[in-house]
Design goal:
The chain is mainly beta and 333 residues long. The chain has a 17-stranded mixed β-sheet that branches. Helix 2 packs antiparallel against helix 4.
Length: 333
């Protein structure tokens, strides 16, 4: 599934947009770009607790058949997450991803350059019925990366690594609630980590805006199409909810003008003035009967900046630590 998403991202990166067409006067591309920029700029930090699961739940047998090797599956198919992201200062150049284009673009708008704390927990079940609680915590303040892993069978193990290099979460931010938000296009190397506002503002001739109102997933929407460079066929379509200040609610990657992989928002939660964030959503693959889904489990907290200590991870007694910053290894007493 993850490889599938990467493949369609490559198509998205190859976009070159069509010549200007006749659009409705209800909303211009420039106005839409301004609305997107306001949304992107309005979030300085965000905290989301959520569950990630499959519909229907995957079984160990299905996963083993697909992977060709023994695998572990979470109990009830549910993994629980806590995610905190914090935008760095505008002049914090050390956080900028190498290779990111800097032409008239603020790279700090992309959450891949933000500090993060991410915790994942699940009860992993073996074929014989034995299970254990697996917990992984990751963080990076822009300079130092930290990771703690706890779990295992039959003897649980605790180990941690401290790195002097900037790092990203092991699982792409696109496979979190952020991937369903206005930041969707800024989370992938294949789109140069460009924000949606940047794409709209700097390539207006490349955007086809259709202001015809359509009902999509229970939202009244308009949409934009993006066309592939050589074949001039749509490769991506983004829908915006009119009743939610044009918040994006669906990202479709197309194959022969039909959805191939879709990030679809199911519900939105208001987190500020004219500002909404996805509180549940699905990733639908046309080649699979299985759906990846998420659901928030507590209110979304936005713009309540936390102290830098939030990026530190408390290491419990017995943790085996590799500290690459100090060049030491030790065990926490």
């Amino acid at each position: 599934m993850f490889n599938k998403i990467c493949c369609v991202s490559i198509l998205f990166y190859s976009i070159l947009f069509i010549n200007p067409l006749s659009f409705s006067n209800e909303l211009s591309k420039e106005q839409l770009a301004t609305i997107m920029k306001d949304m992107e700029s309005a979030v300085s930090d965000i905290c989301v607790d959520y569950e990630w699961y499959n519909i229907p739940p995957l079984t160990a047998e299905e996963e083993e058949k697909k992977m060709g090797a023994p695998v572990l599956v979470p109990k009830d198919g549910i993994r629980k997450f806590k995610l905190y992201l914090s935008r760095p200062p505008a002049d914090s150049n050390q956080t900028i991803k190498q290779g990111l284009s800097a032409d008239a673009y603020d790279p700090n708008l992309s959450p891949v350059n933000w500090g993060f704390v991410k915790e994942e927990s699940a009860t992993l079940v073996m074929k014989d019925g034995n299970s254990w609680q697996q917990t992984t915590k990751e963080s990076c303040d822009g300079k130092v990366g930290r990771k703690l892993s706890m779990g295992g069978w039959p003897t649980p193990r605790k180990w941690a690594k401290i790195s002097g290099q900037k790092q990203e979460p092991e699982v792409s931010l696109r496979l979190t609630p952020m991937g369903f938000s206005v930041f969707h296009t800024s989370l992938s190397k294949m789109t140069n980590y460009y924000t949606l506002s940047y794409i709209l503002k700097n390539n207006p001739e490349m955007i086809y805006l259709d202001t015809t109102v359509q009902s999509v997933g229970g939202f009244k929407t308009i949409h934009i199409d993006l066309l592939q460079q050589t074949a001039k066929i749509p490769v991506a379509r983004i829908y915006f909810s009119i009743d939610h200040n044009y918040t994006p609610v669906r990202f479709e990657y197309l194959r022969r003008d039909n959805p191939n992989v879709t990030f679809e928002v199911q519900t939105l939660e208001k987190i500020g003035e004219n500002l909404w964030f996805p509180s549940s959503g699905d990733i639908i693959n046309s080649d699979s009967d299985n759906i990846n889904a998420f659901q928030t489990t507590s209110p979304i907290i936005c713009n309540q900046k936390r102290d830098n200590k939030v990026f530190e991870i408390e290491l419990p007694s017995g943790t085996e630590v590799t500290d690459e910053v100090k060049g030491t290894t030790y065990k926490v007493k």
